[in-house]
């Protein structure tokens, strides 16, 4: 019993140290656009749990006040406010350090990314126009699909507004990395917490290129056929979830997690934490393509 009590006390003190150090970190406002949706709600929860967030602004075209009220009851650092409709978008964005955009419709069975583009392009254009006006210096994390198209759209909107900074616009491809890590660890029979797999290219189908040859820890247990199968499963991960949900949803929970991971990396980079490297779809000179997913160092 004594050992158990000592362990509990030690854990409690460690938690107190973690939160006191978080309280000393810079004030950071995060805005989530599309916060009442399938990705937005769990993403709002995860960002509320992040001790680096001091202010959490939740925006959507409907239902955001309820989401904000719910999340605001969680006893963590971030102060939460909900905003709804076009009239409140500017206030939601004002002073934001990081804007995360999961807004748009999800992919449904039989729907291509071209179908998504026709709907989500207009949504992204409107939101980025508001970002350029109200928080032009914020980092922008684009989750809205198809990322291969929505990121270039955002870039053009910012260029037109005269606020474009290629180093502040990121397409969130972290879910591809999360899937590659999970699938690789399961097949190679290694602990997933220690796995790293870079994923380059784009964020749709065969443009997703997991580099299992660079995976760590390396494994000699995987055949060429295994690697081909892992690559295809990573590329088809979104479809796997859509089909498993039988038309009633897409990869909302895992995408929210991936968005929170990349958002946390951006906040650490803003705060000057060294050696923060993530894969992201950005303006690039790595290939002849104007935008390409590759490793990106996140620096303040």
UniProtKB/TrEMBL annotation:
Residues 29-171 form the Lactate/malate dehydrogenase N-terminal domain. The keyword NAD applies. Residues 173-297 form the Lactate/malate dehydrogenase C-terminal domain. One of its GO terms (cellular component) is mitochondrion. Its EC number is 1.1.1.37. GO terms for biological process: malate metabolic process; tricarboxylic acid cycle. GO terms for molecular function: L-malate dehydrogenase (NAD+) activity. Pfam families: Ldh_1_C, Ldh_1_N. Keywords: NAD, Oxidoreductase, Tricarboxylic acid cycle. It catalyses: (S)-malate + NAD(+) = oxaloacetate + NADH + H(+). Gene3D superfamilies: Lactate dehydrogenase/glycoside hydrolase, family 4, C-terminal, NAD(P)-binding Rossmann-like Domain. SUPFAM superfamilies: LDH C-terminal domain-like, NAD(P)-binding Rossmann-fold domains. CDD domains: MDH_glyoxysomal_mitochondrial. It is an enzyme of class 1 (oxidoreductase). It comes from the Eukaryota. InterPro entries: Lactate/malate_DH_C, Lactate/malate_DH_N, Lactate_DH/Glyco_Ohase_4_C, Malate_DH_AS, Malate_DH_type1, NAD(P)-bd_dom_sf. Homodimer. Belongs to the LDH/MDH superfamily. MDH type 1 family. This is Malate dehydrogenase. The lineage of its organism: Eukaryota, Viridiplantae, Streptophyta, Embryophyta, Tracheophyta.
